[in-house]
Amino acid sequence: MTSLHQDINWRGVDLNLLIAFSALMETRSVTKAANKLAIGQSAMSHNLSRLRNLLNDPLFERHGHQMLPTQTALEHATTVETILSLITNELLRPSVFIPADFCGTFKIGLTDYAELLFAPALYDAIHQQAPQCQLSFFNVDRHSYHTDFNQHRIDVVIGSMTDMGKDIEHQYLYTEDHVCLYDQRATGLNNTVSLEQYRHHPHALVSPDGKLTTQVDDQLQRQGFERQVAVGSHNFLTIRHLLSGRDLLCVVSRLMAQLDIFNDQLTQCPPPVAIADFDIRLLWLHRNSNHPRNQWLRHIVANTVITQVEQLRAGQ
């Protein structure tokens, strides 16, 4: 604290004293002020005594049947009313978020997968209702998102995160499965891929952490098989471009395979290996659960994602 703050007797400051001061200014009577606040007259007199000690001024002096304010009391009256109004309207009363008036920044954390699928739709939906806002997309993954929440003050995160801590709340959005993606002409494959074909063709791998093995390799190994991973990249766009015109297979999420940003003619079919589905969730910090702006953002993000998924699946 500064020396100015250190000189103040903060223990003597009580919000109830400001309320008592306001009542005395309005009624000019200890009895009427006590009745207004539903307290005893002795309690009101005690509050006045504390006010006088706190502000080092008589504040109200008796003249006949009235308690008239001193010059100091008159000078402080507007300040006290301003303080009480701020506390009532800005602090204690829940604020209402008006998206059309919001000029700040929404920060949304997305995995590569979620950003490719949902960033354009999220931009359109949010800017339609909050046209003056800025929108910042942060790239996150299951290892970094918790740190990113606090470091970058991210509002919400979309991804397939698991093992959330107690400080994270989440909402289920949908479940995603996988397909095998490839170029029929380059691979010589038909509309389906057998396990034997799957094992003997080279693979491209979307690898956020740089590893060239996944749960698929673990499962193949348990069956006594292995596959040839020829290339890996954390970026799905890179892998998608590699598949076109090359003898490569890649297992990707079904919705990613359906993105309409490509003009290639790749084929998708069910993988010949069982691969676990994964859930996509919307996450936010527990401490922001009741904030009106965060609540509005969660609502519009969840609705937009669910609608986008329904539209993509309907176009299958």
UniProtKB/TrEMBL annotation:
<keyword id="KW-0804">Transcription</keyword>
<keyword id="KW-0238">DNA-binding</keyword>
<dbReference type="InterPro" id="IPR000847">
    <property type="entry name" value="LysR_HTH_N"/>
</dbReference>
<comment type="similarity">
    <text>Belongs to the LysR transcriptional regulatory family.</text>
</comment>
<dbReference type="Pfam" id="PF00126">
    <property type="entry name" value="HTH_1"/>
</dbReference>
<dbReference type="InterPro" id="IPR050389">
    <property type="entry name" value="LysR-type_TF"/>
</dbReference>
<protein>
    <submittedName>
        <fullName>LysR family transcriptional regulator</fullName>
    </submittedName>
</protein>
<dbReference type="GO" id="GO:0003677">
    <property type="term" value="F:DNA binding"/>
</dbReference>
<dbReference type="InterPro" id="IPR036388">
    <property type="entry name" value="WH-like_DNA-bd_sf"/>
</dbReference>
<dbReference type="GO" id="GO:0003700">
    <property type="term" value="F:DNA-binding transcription factor activity"/>
</dbReference>
<dbReference type="Pfam" id="PF03466">
    <property type="entry name" value="LysR_substrate"/>
</dbReference>
<keyword id="KW-0805">Transcription regulation</keyword>
<feature type="domain" description="HTH lysR-type">
    <location>
        <begin position="13"/>
        <end position="70"/>
    </location>
</feature>
<dbReference type="InterPro" id="IPR005119">
    <property type="entry name" value="LysR_subst-bd"/>
</dbReference>
<dbReference type="InterPro" id="IPR036390">
    <property type="entry name" value="WH_DNA-bd_sf"/>
</dbReference>
